[in-house]
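Need a sequence for this fold. Nothing fancy.
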């Protein structure tokens, strides 16, 4: 499945997705549809995500694995530094959406850039501009995992999960205004 979108579409892959992908987790195949098609024109990474991914891989695997993961992120996305403007926006986002600090900083960047956040982090599940990925059936064959990609809510569309809908912005996802 190739991720479709225009050149004006902007995406941010949350640390959850990068960690699943690089650790070959249960959702790695779903995230691969985005990660293997990412580019620095349409994909952005707030620097707090670099921190989270590096920390997780250095603590649980090795420093070499952490460096490799970060090199891939830096190669296929544009890293956005969290400056004082984003810090203030993150604080407002935290207050308004009751998000923890790191999530608020990430979602603040998403909102400011009018991007879509690709994640499986439950803190983002009900928020606008979120492509939420989950495994519906833990016993699914890995050969049929793409049929379970689900988007919960993406502003300004209400998204309903369908399989292979031809009018969707992505294969396997249907959007309705």
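Here you go.
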């Amino acid at each position: 499945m190739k991720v479709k979108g225009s050149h004006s579409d902007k995406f941010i892959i949350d640390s959850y997705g990068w960690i699943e992908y690089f650790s070959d987790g249960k959702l790695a195949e779903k995230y691969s549809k985005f990660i293997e098609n990412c580019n620095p024109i349409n994909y952005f990474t707030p620097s707090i995500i670099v921190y989270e991914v590096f920390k997780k891989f250095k603590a649980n695997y090795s420093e070499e694995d952490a460096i490799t993961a970060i090199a891939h992120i830096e190669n296929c996305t544009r890293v956005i530094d969290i400056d004082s403007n984003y810090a203030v926006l993150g604080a407002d986002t935290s207050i308004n959406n009751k998000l923890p600090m790191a999530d608020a900083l990430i979602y603040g960047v998403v909102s400011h850039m009018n991007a879509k956040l690709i994640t499986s982090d439950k803190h983002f599940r009900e928020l606008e501009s979120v492509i939420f990925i989950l495994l519906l059936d833990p016993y699914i064959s890995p050969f049929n995992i793409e049929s379970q990609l689900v988007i919960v809510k993406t502003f300004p569309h209400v998204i309903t999960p369908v399989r292979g809908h031809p009018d969707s912005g992505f294969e396997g996802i249907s959007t309705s205004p």
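For context: The chain has a mean pLDDT of 81.
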